[in-house]
Design a protein that fits this description.
0% strand; mainly alpha; flat; 94 residues; 3 helices
Length: 94
């Protein structure tokens, strides 16, 4: 086997894991008992989406997707800070 077929087999093997994770995150985001559970589920789903973009970049040999995934991860991190400050009831500058 060549290196690319092994990578393709690995990607095909982990696709069901990603789909199951997205389904579980969606359920937790919709039915979470508290707002923090919902935020955490959306946060985890977003980071998994960024990781999935990197996997797609490897699979399709499109390196432009990697900076997109990095920008998405940084955007998610900044939104985490904003949401945590909002839930604490403080201003962003404090």
């Amino acid at each position: 086997m060549t290196g690319m077929t092994e990578i393709q087999m690995f990607i095909i093997a982990i696709l069901p894991i990603y789909v199951a994770a997205f389904i579980l995150y969606t359920l937790r985001a919709l039915r979470g008992p508290s707002i923090s559970d919902m935020v955490l589920a959306i946060d985890a789903m977003s980071y998994d989406l960024a990781a999935f973009l990197v996997i797609l970049a490897i699979y399709f040999k499109q390196p432009i997707l990697i900076p997109v995934a990095i920008a998405l991860a940084l955007w998610i991190y900044s939104l985490d800070i904003y949401v945590s400050k909002y839930l604490e009831g403080k201003e962003l500058g404090e």
